[in-house]
Amino acid sequence: MNGVWILVSCLVCFGVSSHGLSGNGTSRPAVVNVGAIFTFDSTIGRVAKIAIQEAVKDVNSNSRTDVVAVIGPQSSVVAHTISHVANELQVPFLSFAATDPTLSSLQFPYFLRTTQSDLYQMTAIAEIVEYYGWKEVIAIFVDDDYGRNGVSALDDTLASRRCRISYKAGISPGATVTRGDIMDVLVKVALMESRVIVLHAYPTIGFMVLSVAHYLGMMGDDYVWISTDWLTGVLDSSSPLPQDTMDTMQGVLVLRQHTPDSENKRAFSSRWNKLTSGLLGLNSYALNAYDTVWLVAHAIDSFFNQGGIISFSNDTKLQSAEGSNLHLEAMSIFDGGPLLLKNLLQSDFVGLTGPFKFSPDKSLIRPAYDIINVIGTGFRRVGYWSNCSGLSILPPETFYSKPPNRSSSSQKLYSVVWPGNNVQKPRGWVFPNNGKQLRIGVPIRVSYREFVSQIQGTNNFKGFCIDVFTAAVNLLPYAVPHQFVPYGNGHENPSYTDMVKLITAGKFDGVVGDIAIVTNRTRIVDFTQPYVASGLVVVAPFQKLNSGGWAFLRPFSAQMWGVITIFFLFVGMVVWILEHRINDEFRGPPKQQLITILWFSLSTLFFAHRENTVSTLGRMVLIIWLFVVLIINSSYTASLTSILTVQQLYSPIKGIESLKETDEPIGFQVGSFAERYLEEIGIPKSRLVALGSPEQYATALQRGPAKGGVAAVVDERPYVELFLSNQCKFRIVVHLGLILYIKDAFLSFLVLKKIGKNGFCIKSCISFGCENKACQKEVAFPRDSPLAVDLSTAILTLSENGDLQRIHDKWLARSACSLDNAELESDRLHLRSFSGLFLICGIACFIALLIYFLQILRKFHRTSNAEVVSDGQTTSRSKRLQTLLSLIDEKADKSNRGSKRRKIDRSISDNIEIDLGRDSRWRERESQVSSQNEVL
Length: 936
Fold this sequence. Notes:
Helix content: 40-55%
Membrane topology: Multi-pass membrane protein
Pfam families: ANF_receptor (PF01094), Lig_chan (PF00060), Lig_chan-Glu_bd (PF10613)
Structural class: alpha/beta
Oligomer: single chain
Distance between the termini: 163 Å
GO molecular function, one term: ligand-gated monoatomic ion channel activity
Largest sheet: 8 strands, mixed
Keywords: Disulfide bond, Glycoprotein, Ion channel, Ion transport, Ligand-gated ion channel, Membrane, Receptor, Signal, Transmembrane, Transmembrane helix, Transport
Function: Glutamate-gated receptor that probably acts as non-selective cation channel.
């Protein structure tokens, strides 16, 4: 790298500046020297030289020897070395092109980046990868600080999105790299699974990589090439490029640092064209270099306004060795360095690149990139990326005044023409063409061999799971070479959890079998679409209930019968209390009243009570109670009808709680996760009995706990259904559901959201740390493997076209007995079903009694006061109690009611007398008329 020092000075003397820099000329030196470091013969160096010179003209500068700041270096590699010198000399270095993310660390306080860090560029690339749904990328990079640290940032940002770099291909940064070296690298890349390639290099090496890739046919269909902004630096400054060069990069996506459009930028662009006669284009690095000079000018202006003085002191730490030509003793420490650095970090102005201001981590605010698609003889912009809006087709400036919105629905890019002139989004991966077969682990089962079983004497397998896997693979648009690897000792079912762990250990590339999706497995492997519904169930013996002489008692549980009896008596007592004082039908001798209460209570069951209620409170209670009786009668009738007409099955096991409460042994299948589930819900391991076959299931259940068997068996539904297909003496009595055996509630939500429901599936392995030569010959299906996604799609296709059902019927068809009411359900009605009704009735009775006794107490209070007034002395407590009881028992005073009756009777009597008078007068007149007629 041919670097050169260019010393320029910004004129700030005499308080005069054509661009607004001013101050007290008497306190300022005539000239301030600022150095610059860049490479003349590089793409960035050529445009930076012109931009810096124009900026120098704009702020009036000329040369001297001592410097207070340095613009540069251009290279990230040089920046790492020279920043240590900057720290020692306290001279700020301002780089407009060093994008290495690690240069922003606290290790380099005097290094300022006036361009965007590659951290943001790699974040933009990661979001593009996520936007198109790819999960793996291959990184080709220059193996130096610039390339390694940039790719490391890409790896981190991809990992946060559950993506990864599957292969890293480093290229020597030296000038001795040949096309043969590049070809060796790309041949290895072509053998990889991923087809999404990120190229992070210098222009010379980058163009060589694209040229060799074009030669090898790696710029065609299925490939995706994403380049960092080194390519747009060349395209912007050197367009048009030769056609043969453009042909090697058709369909490539490129990033370019975004600079908002402005009048100043357009004016400078016009000025640039005149300076270069149109032979050199203006790129973002030139704009950064121009703004960097102005940043230094503004900071120095503020430095002098704050009373800063340019002075240097010797550094005793720097001593040249005897005979050395380095002359380190000539280097001086800038005494005003800390103040100048502070002013640089606090600068805030609008330059050609937009608002120029540093964030607390010394990065420029508002990082943004244009996303460019190389097409034909040029390129077009397909969108933008910014840390405010993510991917968008609108310029980032439109989002700065709005709240950040990074939702997936708001991410959008225009259509892209991909390599091979393809407008359809590439799949982004292919099955690796390296001659290696997938090692697919298959369990050697000794029971339920309908799911998977090994063909004796071979490594071939058959069964339901094998047929599903084979049919799904045959639907893929590419070949999947694989071999089945048996797992297990052949004497008992293997542990599926241990088998899954072998995927992460690298022994298997995947697993095919009847393996359920549970929490501890989802943490280390990924699943395809499940193809058999699963879930834990409890199987137990049953007995048939006949409709004997006491069948009429079965509709209600004993607790329900007891509550009904209590409420009948309770409501009868309440109505008797409310009616006793005012209703003659509820009065009489104690024996008669007790009979009345019992008769009234029981007769309401048939709505045949003959006693009328006359009080408002009594009628209210009776109406509510009759409604309760109506519901009870209807429920009893329906349940009894079902009991007498449908055969009933009965099992003493009602749920998982009934299993936990006893000390009876419980069976489970060897290797099943049911054992872990039962232990987690609190069942001691001593009660658990491992059973290895359906025959052992039947034997243990028939013997029962008393004869050394088990009370029930807990297993997954598919096995139980197969077991019940030829064992008609047992039934499913409890469904434990899906969520019950997923311990972590949050994780269970994620699992359910991802896979819809639990089931058997094909596993794909997860592999991390696969990079460079360590994994050249290794094939792995990592988390979010595209092969797993394609197999899931194939399984859904099998389900839609009916092939999955046909495979199911071939291996798991059930006999008639398993269709015979396989699940036990009790028709007995329990108290919990009617608790609301009884609660309403009880509340109504309580309110009525409360109102009634308040009325009694009110009357008692009046009576007591009247007795005190008449006797002139306070009555004793026993007498007051007798008075209260007599008030409760005495018949209500009907004097008012009698007076009203007498008034009504008198009115009727008067009316009768009037009518009689009218009748007598009418008869008298008739007689008179008759006499007159006789005379005539």
